Automatic annotation (TrEMBL):
Binding site for 4-amino-2-methyl-5-(diphosphooxymethyl)pyrimidine: Q44, F45, R46, E47, K48, N79, S117, K146
GO MF annotation: an example: thiamine-phosphate diphosphorylase activity
Pathway(s) served: Cofactor biosynthesis; thiamine diphosphate biosynthesis; thiamine phosphate from 4-amino-2-methyl-5-diphosphomethylpyrimidine and 4-methyl-5-(2-phosphoethyl)-thiazole: step 1/1
EC numbers, comma separated: 2.5.1.3
Catalysed transformations (reactions): 2-(2-carboxy-4-methylthiazol-5-yl)ethyl phosphate + 4-amino-2-methyl-5-(diphosphooxymethyl)pyrimidine + 2 H(+) = thiamine phosphate + CO2 + diphosphate; 4-methyl-5-(2-phosphooxyethyl)-thiazole + 4-amino-2-methyl-5-(diphosphooxymethyl)pyrimidine + H(+) = thiamine phosphate + diphosphate; 2-[(2R,5Z)-2-carboxy-4-methylthiazol-5(2H)-ylidene]ethyl phosphate + 4-amino-2-methyl-5-(diphosphooxymethyl)pyrimidine + 2 H(+) = thiamine phosphate + CO2 + diphosphate
Positions bound to 2-[(2R,5Z)-2-carboxy-4-methylthiazol-5(2H)-ylidene]ethyl phosphate: T143, K144, S145, G175, I195, S196
Taxonomic placement: Bacteria, Bacillati, Bacillota, Bacilli, Bacillales
Domain spans labelled Thiamine phosphate synthase/TenI: 15-198
Cofactor remark: Binds 1 Mg(2+) ion per subunit.
Keyword Acyltransferase attributed: no
UniProt name for this protein: Thiamine-phosphate synthase
Coiled-coil ranges (or none): none
Family to which this protein belongs: Belongs to the thiamine-phosphate synthase family.
Amino acid sequence: MTRIASDTMREQLKVYFIMGSVNCAKPPAEVLAEAIAGGITLFQFREKGSGALVGEQKYELAKQLQHICREHGIPFIVNDDVELALALDADGVHIGQEDEDARIVRAKIGDKILGVSAHNLEEARAAMDAGADYIGVGPIYPTKSKEDAKKAQGPEIIRLLRRHGIAIPLVAIGGVTADNAGEVIAAGADGVSVISAIASASSPETAARQLVRAVQSSKKGA
Ligand SMILES: Cc1ncc(COP(=O)(O)OP(=O)(O)O)c(N)n1
Ligand SMILES: Cc1nc(C(=O)O)sc1CCOP(=O)(O)O
Ligand SMILES: [Mg+2]
């Protein structure tokens, strides 16, 4: 295996859906299958928050969702839990500033995809140096999906990172919807990462399709 190429990573980040059982009003497998039908390009299993599954139940749900992703060629990323990612032979791991050190995680996962959260230039540079394949920047807009989210920074944070030479694949997260996705792409993000815009939608398929359209039309206009 070799590390993912930057251009491939950028493509996969276009519409990056994140979800766990607590985010879904209907069975997670149904939500994921619909989101895939709508055109999502990457999936992150994030089993976190009040009521989240643990132990065997968490493992079984992860396995079920990974199977759905595999059937459709969608890479499967695990949030926070490096040991789970290794046990499942997932495609990658996403970690934040409060999680295990990025260099240690890179050493553990070899060439699997490594995503790291960054909230400012210093963190973005450190993530690049530690071997991140992409950075997740947020929250861009206010979000209710992360209990300990920081203050929303707006799309300007993406412009700032790009202006200061952060050239690696970058995905915007936090309060992103089909209505504001275009402005984060215009600011320099390669893609958008969402929980509620898809998981809370009455039709996850339609919601995903609207996000795909918004991202694509903003890229065409660039
Ligand atoms: C794509 C992406 N970007 C950012 C995050 C947030 O990660 P983190 O700061 O570790 O917070 P938790 O998601 O673990 O609560 C993410 N998960 N994905
Ligand atoms: C998981 C996560 N990380 C964030 C960050 O700022 O790092 S914001 C966030 C939640 C995103 O959910 P929604 O699309 O529903 O706003
Ligand atoms: Mg984390």
